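Sanity check

After download, print the first record. It should look like this:
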Amino acid sequence: MGANELSMLLWRERELLEMLLFKLEEQELLLAAGRSRWTQFATREIEQVLAGLSEAGVTRVVEAETVAAEWGAAEGAGIRELIEIAPTEAWRDVLTGHLHALTTLTDEVGRLREGNSERLRAVLRATQETLAGVGETTGEYTTQGDRARGDSARIIDTEM
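Expected structure tokens:
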């Protein structure tokens, strides 16, 4: 155990964040294409990656504690604190690189997750509006608010 293992765990966490980013982009493409039928599978895969990230995070914290003890840092020291007290410039550079990459990936994941959440809310709203209007006579309207067509067809995805 030690700094090498911590670095390997940080690489693993980066890989998982990249996989999460990929899965979120996949979900985004499905939503943008209106392929709501497959979003449940994308969501399940995202949840699996999140579970892996959770496990990796716990393992990283344990290993960081070991490195902190070896390097004489305070208990509960995080990556930033380990960077400050790293015994060599090489370890400072390695840990700084990991921290920068993890921060960047986390920011990207956050932005994409928020965008996907908005799209999912829009899909839910549209579905609820469609279901609420089933059986009612609704149609398309002109820019003046007059009914342009009274016999519109609807497609409802009952698999959601």
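If your output differs, re-run the checksum step. Summary of this record's structure: The chain has four helices and two strands.
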